[in-house]
Structures are given as structure tokens and as C-alpha cells.
């Protein structure tokens, strides 16, 4: 898929130089320097030539970026905070035939309009298509082997692939894939920010874009995000993520694949935005409800519901209605409540325009 050979990965000593550290000092970040691992992450992200835009956050030295390009992505925008990685990323961009754009900045603060603009600026169809570098694999040659594909069918498939490859970015109906191996302290706040933006259809989550996210977390956090009802690791984040996305544990990585080796293992979660979210509009009410019930997660649903009714008496009729409709066993724990049930309460509170206490 790669039109030109990408430059070799800088050896680890160069990486140390990039970070301005001597070999015996500790890195402040944990990198993946095994291409098999980054290829597997790109595979789980389902990268294909049909995607309109791939956004990678925190590419560092760019090994996952290479895997994304190798998987055939037509437009990749990377957002990196640390300017010391710029030369390495620029080298990669130059070899990518206008498929890679670089934005330097903090993803938590970046206006998504810059990402979409950088994506649209990449890789536009040349006026004379015959002079374009073939960026997709050449058609299989003539062959008499009975197992070879029908040449007419192959030609049609190649033509379709060529069309897919040059398709311009659609402003309102794009397939966008987000990937990132970020420091663990940044991954969760960024996920919450993205979920809130997704609920409000803002930024890259706007219009009718189909969005998937393939993100690395500390293993326990990842297990929490995908935890179904009654799972001991179920949390506020499980409820918020599952209200908007179909989530799947994609890939568990032992700490040994990172350089330097961190103290904890990691895991990649794949999120596919649901066509119909379980809560319409803002996630605020659902976040408040989940926070309230998970703040005292060892207490029963009955205890937490009474606690809420006591702290905000105006909410009591709504809670009574919710309990009656759900046929609640009040001895259940917060972790046993399904995402749909928490969403039902959030919708009722939203309709009644009632706020719940933040305790
Ligand atoms: C753990 S390293 C991973 C690098 C690379 N993706 C890998 O897997 O080897 C995290 C990278 O994210 C970058 N980063 C951290 N916070 C960021 C933020 N808020 N916005 C953009 N990049 C960030 C760091 O500079 C670093 O390059």
C-alpha cells in the first residue's frame, strides 16, 4: 500500500537523544518499538482505504503511524504535543505521498476544526490521474491458474479501490478513526472529553460521521470501560462509554512490550459510535447519575436511591417512578444496574429539568 519506502525507524539511542536523556535516565513516556504490536493495533482499529480520515493522538516517534499508513489509510492526521518528535514525524510525512499531516499541540485543547482542515488538505486527486503514483496495489497479472481471481472482476475491484482512494473527504458523512497510545493520565480525561463531544455531535463527532476510537489504557481502566453489568470493575466510565458506543476489549499488552517497561500492563479498547445513543443530547445528567451511584459503590441501590431522595426531595417522585418501572430489587449494587437503566433515569431527570446533588 505504501507508495514509497518509509524511512527506517530511528534506533533507540536516537529516541533517547530526541528526548534529551542519557541512556541511564528514565523515559517519562512508554513507547512501543515493536512493529508487530503496532500492526496489531492498526488491525484492531479496522483501518482501510475506505476510511476518510484517521487521527492519531500522541504518535511520538511514529511506529503506530507507520502501521496505520501500511494498512492503507489515505489521510492520517497526527496530533503531537512534544516538538522533539517533529523531525521524525516530518521525515515520515515526506515519504507518505501527502497522506500524513502533522499538528503540533495539546489534543485536550485543540479545536477539531484544525484536524478536519488538515485532513481535507491531504492527498487530493491529481488533475491527470494517469500521472499519479499508483498508491494501491497493482492489478494481479495475467495468469492461467484456476484459483486466480477472474481478471474482469479483479479490474472492477481495482477500479473501485482507485475510486475509494481518491474520494474527497465528505463534510457530513465521513468515516473517521481515532487512535492513540497516550500517557495513562491523559487517556481517561481525553476519553471523557470525546464522549461529551460525541453526545453533542461536536468537532470530528459532528454531522453524520461514523466514528470509531481505538485507544490504549492501563489494563484495569480498559477492563472497567468494557465491564458489563454486575462486573466488579464496572464504573461511571463504563456507563458513559456504553451509552454512546459499542465497546470491545481489543488487545491486552503486557508491560514488557513498552520501552521502558512500565509497572502496569495495558490494553486497547475499540469503540464504535452507536447509530442511536441511549441518551439524547448532553451526557451531563447521565454523568451526574452514574457519579452519584458509583461514589458509594458498596452501598445498595436502595441506599443510594434513598440518599438521593433525601438530598434532593424534588427528585423523589422521579426516583419512585424509575424504581416502579424497573421493578427494582433494592438490594442490588450500583454495578448491577444496566446502562439502559441509568440512561432511563438520566432521561427522566432531563425531561423534568431537575438537578441531582453531586455527592
Ligand atoms: C506513551 S507515548 C506513546 C508514543 C507512541 N504512540 C507509541 O505508542 O510508542 C505518548 C505520546 O503522547 C504525546 N502526548 C501526551 N499528551 C498529549 C496531548 N495532550 N496531546 C497530544 N499528544 C500528547 C507524548 O508527547 C508522547 O509522544
Automatic annotation (TrEMBL):
GO biological process: transcription initiation at mitochondrial promoter
Class of enzymatic activity (EC top level): transferase
Keyword field: Methyltransferase, RNA-binding, rRNA processing, S-adenosyl-L-methionine, Transferase
Basic and acidic residues biased stretches: 153-163
Enzyme Commission number(s) from the entry: 2.1.1.-
Compartments it resides in: Mitochondrion
Record-annotated Ribosomal RNA adenine methylase transferase N-terminal domain positions: 37-275
Gene3D superfamilies: Ribosomal RNA adenine dimethylase-like, domain 2, Vaccinia Virus protein VP39
Compositional bias annotation for Low complexity: 129-140
Binding-site residues, S-adenosyl-L-methionine: 30, 32, 58, 80, 106, 181
Annotated stretches, region: Disordered: 124-163
InterPro entries linked: KsgA/Erm, rRNA_Ade_diMease-like_C, rRNA_Ade_Mease_Trfase_CS, rRNA_Ade_methylase_Trfase_N, SAM-dependent_MTases_sf
Family, as annotated: Belongs to the class I-like SAM-binding methyltransferase superfamily. rRNA adenine N(6)-methyltransferase family.
PANTHER family: DIMETHYLADENOSINE TRANSFERASE (PTHR11727), DIMETHYLADENOSINE TRANSFERASE 1, MITOCHONDRIAL (PTHR11727:SF17)
Protein name: rRNA adenine N(6)-methyltransferase
Gene name of this polypeptide: TFB1M
Amino acid at each position: 500500500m505504501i507508495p514509497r519506502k518509509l524511512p527506517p525507524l530511528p534506533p533507540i539511542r536516537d529516541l533517547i537523544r530526541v528526548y534529551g536523556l542519557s541512556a541511564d535516565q528514565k523515559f517519562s513516556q512508554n513507547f512501543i518499538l515493536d512493529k508487530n504490536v503496532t500492526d496489531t493495533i492498526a488491525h484492531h482499529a479496522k483501518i482501510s482505504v475506505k476510511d476518510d480520515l484517521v487521527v492519531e493522538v500522541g504518535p511520538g516517534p511514529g511506529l503506530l503511524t507507520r502501521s496505520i499508513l501500511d494498512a492503507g489509510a489515505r489521510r492520517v492526521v497526527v496530533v503531537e504535543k512534544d516538538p522533539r518528535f517533529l523531525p521524525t514525524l516530518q521525515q515520515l510525512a515526506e515519504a507518505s505521498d501527502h497522506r500524513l499531516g502533522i499538528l503540533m499541540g495539546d489534543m485536550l485543547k485543540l479545536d477539531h476544526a484544525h484536524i478536519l482542515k488538515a485532513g481535507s488538505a491531504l492527498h487530493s486527486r491529481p488533475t491527470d490521474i494517469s500521472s499519479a503514483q499508483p498508491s494501491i496495489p497493482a492489478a494481479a497479472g495475467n495468469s492461467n491458474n484456476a484459483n486466480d481471481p477472474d481478471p474482469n472482476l479483479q479490474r472492477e475491484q481495482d477500479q473501485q479501490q482507485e475510486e475509494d482512494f481518491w474520494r474527497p473527504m465528505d463534510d457530513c458523512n465521513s468515516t473517521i478513526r481515532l487512535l492513540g497510545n497516550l500517557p495513562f493520565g491523559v487517556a481517561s480525561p481525553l476519553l471523557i472529553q470525546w464522549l461529551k463531544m460525541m453526545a453533542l455531535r461536536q468537532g470530528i463527532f459532528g454531522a453524520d460521521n461514523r466514528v470509531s476510537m481505538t485507544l490504549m489504557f492501563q489494563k484495569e481502566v480498559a477492563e472497567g470501560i468494557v465491564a458489563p453489568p454486575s462486573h466488579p470493575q464496572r464504573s461511571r466510565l463504563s456507563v458513559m462509554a456504553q451509552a454512546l458506543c459499542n465497546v470491545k476489549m481489543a488487545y491486552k499488552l503486557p508491560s514488557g512490550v513498552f520501552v521502558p517497561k512500565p509497572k502496569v500492563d495495558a490494553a486497547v479498547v475499540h469503540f464504535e459510535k452507536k447509530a442511536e445513543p441511549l441518551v439524547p443530547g448532553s451526557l451531563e445528567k447521565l454523568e451526574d447519575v452514574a457519579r452519584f451511584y458509583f461514589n458509594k459503590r458498596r452501598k445498595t441501590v436502595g441506599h443510594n436511591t434513598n440518599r438521593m431522595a433525601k438530598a434532593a426531595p424534588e427528585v423523589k417522585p422521579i426516583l419512585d417512578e424509575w424504581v416502579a418501572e424497573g421493578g427494582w430489587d433494592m438490594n442490588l449494587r450500583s454495578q448491577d444496574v444496566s446502562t439502559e437503566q441509568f440512561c432511563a433515569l438520566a432521561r427522566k431527570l432531563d425531561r423534568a429539568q431537575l438537578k441531582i446533588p453531586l455527592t
